[in-house]
Amino acid sequence: MSTYFSQGDEVTLFERAHRRQLPMMITGPTGCGKTRLVEHMGERLGRPVVTISCHDDLTSGDLVGRFVVAGGDVIWNDGPLTRAVKDGALCYLDEVVEARHDSLAVLHSLTDHRRTLYLDRAGQVLHAPREFMLICSYNPAYRSSLKDLKPSFRQRFVTLAMDYLPPDREAEVLVAESGIDRPAAERLVRCATGIRTADQIFHLEPPSTRALVAAAQLIAAGADELHATQACVLAPLSTDGAITDGLREIAAAALSTDRTSTT
Amino acid sequence: MSTYFSQGDEVTLFERAHRRQLPMMITGPTGCGKTRLVEHMGERLGRPVVTISCHDDLTSGDLVGRFVVAGGDVIWNDGPLTRAVKDGALCYLDEVVEARHDSLAVLHSLTDHRRTLYLDRAGQVLHAPREFMLICSYNPAYRSSLKDLKPSFRQRFVTLAMDYLPPDREAEVLVAESGIDRPAAERLVRCATGIRTADQIFHLEPPSTRALVAAAQLIAAGADELHATQACVLAPLSTDGAITDGLREIAAAALSTDRTSTT
Amino acid sequence: MSTYFSQGDEVTLFERAHRRQLPMMITGPTGCGKTRLVEHMGERLGRPVVTISCHDDLTSGDLVGRFVVAGGDVIWNDGPLTRAVKDGALCYLDEVVEARHDSLAVLHSLTDHRRTLYLDRAGQVLHAPREFMLICSYNPAYRSSLKDLKPSFRQRFVTLAMDYLPPDREAEVLVAESGIDRPAAERLVRCATGIRTADQIFHLEPPSTRALVAAAQLIAAGADELHATQACVLAPLSTDGAITDGLREIAAAALSTDRTSTT
Amino acid sequence: MSTYFSQGDEVTLFERAHRRQLPMMITGPTGCGKTRLVEHMGERLGRPVVTISCHDDLTSGDLVGRFVVAGGDVIWNDGPLTRAVKDGALCYLDEVVEARHDSLAVLHSLTDHRRTLYLDRAGQVLHAPREFMLICSYNPAYRSSLKDLKPSFRQRFVTLAMDYLPPDREAEVLVAESGIDRPAAERLVRCATGIRTADQIFHLEPPSTRALVAAAQLIAAGADELHATQACVLAPLSTDGAITDGLREIAAAALSTDRTSTT
Amino acid sequence: MSTYFSQGDEVTLFERAHRRQLPMMITGPTGCGKTRLVEHMGERLGRPVVTISCHDDLTSGDLVGRFVVAGGDVIWNDGPLTRAVKDGALCYLDEVVEARHDSLAVLHSLTDHRRTLYLDRAGQVLHAPREFMLICSYNPAYRSSLKDLKPSFRQRFVTLAMDYLPPDREAEVLVAESGIDRPAAERLVRCATGIRTADQIFHLEPPSTRALVAAAQLIAAGADELHATQACVLAPLSTDGAITDGLREIAAAALSTDRTSTT
Amino acid sequence: MSTYFSQGDEVTLFERAHRRQLPMMITGPTGCGKTRLVEHMGERLGRPVVTISCHDDLTSGDLVGRFVVAGGDVIWNDGPLTRAVKDGALCYLDEVVEARHDSLAVLHSLTDHRRTLYLDRAGQVLHAPREFMLICSYNPAYRSSLKDLKPSFRQRFVTLAMDYLPPDREAEVLVAESGIDRPAAERLVRCATGIRTADQIFHLEPPSTRALVAAAQLIAAGADELHATQACVLAPLSTDGAITDGLREIAAAALSTDRTSTT
């Protein structure tokens, strides 16, 4: 089983929802570990994970399947959701808020007491086994009137709110994934924390743990800390000159102060 | 026959409409039991229920059927509406307000004195048997100029307005479905009632009976009452910090007051 | 021949238009009897009626036909309009204002001196027989800049403006269709007339004869008059609390006054 | 050759354009005789007329043709424009302003010195014979920023502006087409002239000669003059009560004054 | 080789761009001779010309080709752009501003140092031979925020700005193409020049040389000069009465003054 | 290996990202050398480059592949992204900001620790080999609310910000690519620098190195410097007369001053 750095009681909540056959909605900022939690729970519960990246163009046919022509005949081809139901898998709809709401209607009967998938076009009705669980995720920071999930849809799920790891654990992750030393990891985390705090001023998407890992990997490959931070953490945040300068000051301060203090 | 907790005379009204071959429109908030009523009436009247979840992308072809290629030949494939007409089933269009209005035009001749389904593409005309009944549902709280049902469409149906169960019966449902004890069920219902009352202030979708059942199930699985309420009842309502705090206060008060008073 | 309750000279006007091979446009509020007139004229003139419910998604291919693959070959499949022309039928386009205007272009050559249907894709030209007649209907109360019929389209038709039946005849219809007694029918009609008069204040779609018939049928099945009126006549009109209360007062007054005066 | 009532020198202009191989654009109000002129010129020049009713959904494939599957093989199927080019026909695009502008791009090379049709998908290039002529029509009264023809497109054509016939000739048409007597025809024309004059006030589409012919035919079938005028001339103009009343006064005056003066 | 009336050094610039393998963008008002220049250069350079009329519906598949079914098998069918690359032709995209910008992305690799066409769907990469040249044209007078070409796209081309011929040469063209005498040609050109000058006031698309040629041809066919000018030059410009009157005055003055002065 | 003129440490950063299996986002103005860098790195790392020009119409099927019919059977056809993953290629998505965001969702699992491509429709899961690298590019100057990349997407990449070459190196490129002499190259660069500086005033897309190379090639083919600059550098920038005049002054000054000073 791969190492998983837990934030709190999310593993327990997930297990309880799975035991009571309740679907789960995981919320949290980009790159805070939502996908990793699902992968970890799949290993822990001994169930396969079927991942579906949601997008505007995902049709209900893409989810449940469709008829295809093969060898001159027409046969039904299960979609990933149907396969997950049949296999009793954990079915993970990543960034569900990106999906067209009409594609989500097919999930309704799977998320209430029916736990049933209606394959209207195939003329079949599937009852989900106990092991099957539906998990969705989204980032509540992206709220727009057009794409916000319907309240009645959100009420169908047990909601698990995730956030960034606490600084200590985040530094631990950087060391484990890139091989840089602990002080350098702490400098990067301090830099991220500084920007996340300044976030209220800049109205930016805060830097993710994933971006910190990338910076750590460039450093491990020989890059200068400030350059690596610039390329992986600062540059993706904004292309506005003034903001970029402000961010660089925060980063430079965090990286050098820290270095002084740890040497 | 599964247990059904009735709200009033909805079963009688449904039976009369069925006897006089009138279509029915069920309105009411999310998760108040519309789907369960239809399932219950199917059992009671001894008719199969064909459920169709409506969405923007549902074409009239999805409802009535289409030609498909099979074994090199083209054959007509009945859609769920056509199958329901042929089987004398209860055909249930869930959240009909989500459907494109043009897809609904095919229902017109089924909802007046003709009780006829025109399959233009197949060149067939089907007369619905006495047993067939069309039921639609929608939540009138979701009114938008774009998606509101046309008045002339609504006038084609006998309208049944449902609401949440009274507190006593709602607690009864929680006990029956999750196995928690009666006082805990009452605490959860009191919590929901508090939020539903505060609804005028917060402008939120009020919590559904379905969400309460989910919280009850997490409690039955060992979760703390406040945490379960947070995950299943409060978190889906809003991601706005201030509102979330207000909701948590209401919930904490309802859960603790109640506990004190019942011990 | 089924009973038809005429409003005035609409049968004569229809016959004259048919004799002179002129197409007809029937206007009037929802459920005032447009469809029934066409069915009646079909019986009277001894011609089949082909009904097409118009909607946004109706293509000209749906009207005139298309090529389909059958047994490995491609054959032309007549649409309902083409079949109606070939059979000399009455072709009835219900709620024509709902159709996309581009789908209606195919009707132009059928509605002027040419009386010709060009099947461009099939490479055929059909001349309509004397018996063929095109009838369209729409409800002028639904006027929106987007969907209003083009004036040049409306000028292609003899226009027949229908309205609700006078109260006496409307009560006659209720008795004939539901079996309730005459005084109860009169109470329902008085109730409808009251709301139709109040219509200028509430800006609602007025209740249709069809909705009154449904209420009469529930009453015949044992329902209370006020409840039946609520479910079939009032509830479909509005979900706004204040308006609903106003409507219920009008209904209660009409139903009770009447009962007193007839006993 | 069918009778054609000419307005002025339109026949000469048409013949000159045909002789010099220039395309023609005919403008004028609805029902003023544009289609009849093209039919008449087809007879006069001894060329077939291919009519295409333009609409929003007309693709360039509908105009030039497409590949279709037949007997397991794929064969090219000429569209009406391609057939017209090959046959040296008069190709008439009725209401060209309704077509999507992108569908019209295929006409460019046919309307300049090239007189060539590029069938990109079929890989063919067709040179139009001398006899071929492209004619388009539209009603300039329907000007909207969205659908107005591009100036560069209009400049590709010789423009022929048509209008209603002068009263004498219009009455002549009514007599010829319906068989009513001359005084009645004159009353109808006076009525139309009155409304066309009042047009500046009412901002309506003025009544067409086609609508007058329909009224004349109802009169010939026994209808009262005012009723026939109401059904065929007034009712299509407006559904606004005040305007309708104003129109009826104009009509009643025109019909009665005239009757007095001619008796 | 057909006669070509050059405006200046456009032939030289075109030849230099061709020699250095640079793509060219020709700009200029409608009907000023852009298409004729490309045809002329094709003859001069001894290369075939492949013309593609751009429009909103042109897909990249229409440009590069697509798979089609033939004889039960699927074969790749080159589009006109692919054929032009293979043949080393001049590929002319007429009115490129009309094309959807996404269809133009396929041109990027052909318009920089790569001179390469990627046929992603066919899995092929084509290197353009030296002889191949891509030419686009558009009329900068049609600027709209929606359809303007992206600056980065325009920078990929050598830009050749064309305009109307000087009066003398334009009259020469009229004589050569229609056979009218020189004074009449000069009168027509003076008329056009007058309107082009008044263009700032009327905000019209100025009359093209093509429209003058059409007028000249009608005159050669016996039409009166003012009538021919009205039908081919004035009528396409506007349907607004006041503007039309203003234009006719300019035209009448230009035609008569001139006639006096030349007799 | 073709000559590459580096701007700074971009080659080193690229190599480090490749070694640590991190995806890269290259930003910079049009024609500053983004595409050339990717080609250069392909040669340097000994990996093939698969280029995909992004546009609005690019579907995820175009990226990953789709089922196609061949010889009566249905076979899976890899798209360029899938081929790049299988071949361990550098996969370059040019102007990724042009792509529909929903098409980009398929990239998520390739750009985090999973480095996995889910082919949902084919039912396959591909793990990218070490050699595979995903590179995207875009021009941050084109920012629009509709098309801006999501921050969470940008955070998945190491960002490399490119800009125009310094004047000396840009002149070097012009000499190398066109064969003009050094002083002429310097005059062109000075001209470009002048316009790029004036850019804040004119709000134009600044001229690219690519446009300067084109001008240099026309000069090498015998064109006058000012004419070549006009056709390749100034004309694509604007069609507004006043701006064009301003630009021409800057260009004339830069070209002549320079000439004087270098002679």
Largest contact between chains: B-C, 44 and 48 residues
How much is the average pLDDT of chain A? 85
CATH superfamily of the largest domain in chain A: P-loop containing nucleotide triphosphate hydrolases
Q: Can you identify the CATH class of the largest domain in chain A?
A: Alpha Beta
Tally of distinct domains of chain A = 2
The assigned CATH architecture of the largest domain in chain A is 3-Layer(aba) Sandwich
Low-confidence spans of chain A = none
Shape of chain A: elongated
* Alpha-carbon Rg of chain A, integer: 22 Å
CATH topology of the largest domain in chain A: Rossmann fold
What percent strand of chain A? Answer: 15-25%
User: What strand line-up does the widest sheet of chain A have?
Assistant: 2-5-8-1-9
How far is the first residue's CA from the last residue's CA of chain A?
A: 36 Å
Pfam family, one (chains A, B, C, D, E, F): CbbQ_C
Family (chains A, B, C, D, E, F): Belongs to the CbbQ/NirQ/NorQ/GpvN family.
Keywords (chains A, B, C, D, E, F): ATP-binding, Nucleotide-binding
Protein name (chains A, B, C, D, E, F): AAA family ATPase
Q: Keywords, please?
A:
Rossmann fold, 9 strands, 263 residues, P-loop_NTPase (chains A, B, C, D, E, F), AAA family ATPase (chains A, B, C, D, E, F), two-stranded antiparallel sheet, 2 domains, homohexamer, alpha/beta, AAA+_ATPase (chains A, B, C, D, E, F)
